[in-house]
Design goal:
heterodimer, A: about 80 residues, 2 helices, about 0% strand, B: about 240 residues, mainly alpha, globular
Chain lengths: ~80, ~240
Amino acid sequence: MELLFAAPALPLDKAGKYVAGAYVVFVVLLVVYLAIMAAKVQRIEKELRDVAAIAEEKKEAQAAPGRGSETPLASHGSGGGGTGV
Amino acid sequence: MYGKGLKPLSIATVAMLALSLSLVFFYAPLDGDQGFIQKIFYLHVPLAMVALVGFIAGGVFAIAHLRTDNRKWDAYSYVSIHISVIFGVAVLITGAIWAKASWGHWWVWDEPTLVSFLIVFLLYATYYPFRYAIEDRDRQARYASVFAVTAGAFVPLNFMAVRMAQSLVHPRTFATAEGGLPGEMMLTFLVSLAAIALLWTTLVKFELTAKSASGQVKRLRRALDAPAGGGGSRIAPEVS
């Protein structure tokens, strides 16, 4: 414990590395978090494209005579590639 | 709904962070005792304070959830705790770097402030496995809220206990007989605190917006797919 009280201030060349390290850690954590959130937003966008495609198919099926009630919407299920933008 | 005001909030956060960094490195004087290494103080302490307040906020939102049974408050509680845990990681790492530079050790086990923060952090680290171990979404939200209230009450108690421990190692910056921080340092600290608090608010809002969008897309998909559509994700609370 006495060692802690005796610790002198570090010279600028040594202290600079520690200060830079602390701020870089903070920035890296922030960037990692934002990257994860960006991936999440991309996934939501993909899901939204899928839902839009299902809605469009449903609309087309309802518009086509005699086919409206037979369209198996459940076949889209989960997943599936996105169509259109 | 959650995304409203996110853009101006983000701009204010970036501006405040830039101002804070400018003050830290170009305005605040060097500390007579610690020298340049004291610059870590303007990052480490605001992060710790905001993380602890965030944990308490998570508990307050959890009380609102238990009182109203509105899932919105559960989402607020979850996201508050989530962002505070991330801030907690930053606190522990920046604290270790500061300790190494000042004391020559990455960690000091007989220092109450360090150990108490680690205990709080580890307590909240158990929030995730506790929450996701419960399948039923209603029970999951209710139990997680009870956890958040209990742990949230522990945070100020823990803080007071540490203050009463009267450690001589960890500096008591704001309540010393010598009068605490000088003016320039105090101003820089307050700006840094405001910047980190804004960052926390922005990230909470951002995450809530993403969860809300995800929840609404799932609801839409269930409505389109089949009448007996499956449940939502159990990884995180779904908000609409």
